[in-house]
From TrEMBL:
Pfam families given in the database record: SPC12 (PF06645)
Transmembrane segments: 33-51
Example GO biological process: signal peptide processing
Topology versus the membrane: Multi-pass membrane protein
Stored InterPro entries: DTM1, Spc1/SPCS1
GO cellular component terms listed in the entry, alphabetical order: signal peptidase complex
Family to which this protein belongs: Belongs to the SPCS1 family.
Keywords for this protein: Endoplasmic reticulum, Membrane, Transmembrane, Transmembrane helix
Main location: endoplasmic reticulum
Protein name: Signal peptidase complex subunit 1
GTP-binding listed as a keyword: no
Compartments it resides in: Endoplasmic reticulum membrane
């Protein structure tokens, strides 16, 4: 199984490839930028959160574990 750092690295490289392909295929910087922003938000939403931390009751989110 891949470590979190390796998974993040591969995701960012894949996103970079998708941005280049989108930009070249559509000849649109705006669409390439939209692809980049969507990809970064998707990666941040899936890979970065500490799910163990958020798995607690909502009232406990503001206190350290």
């Amino acid at each position: 199984m891949l470590g979190r750092d390796e998974l993040l690295r591969r995701s960012l490289v894949t996103l970079a490839a998708a941005v280049v392909v989108t930009g070249v295929a559509t000849a649109s910087v705006r669409k390439a930028l939209a692809t980049y922003v969507f990809g970064i938000l998707a990666i941040a939403g899936v890979l970065l959160p500490d799910w163990e931390f958020f798995d607690r009751d909502f009232s406990q989110w503001l206190t350290p574990m």
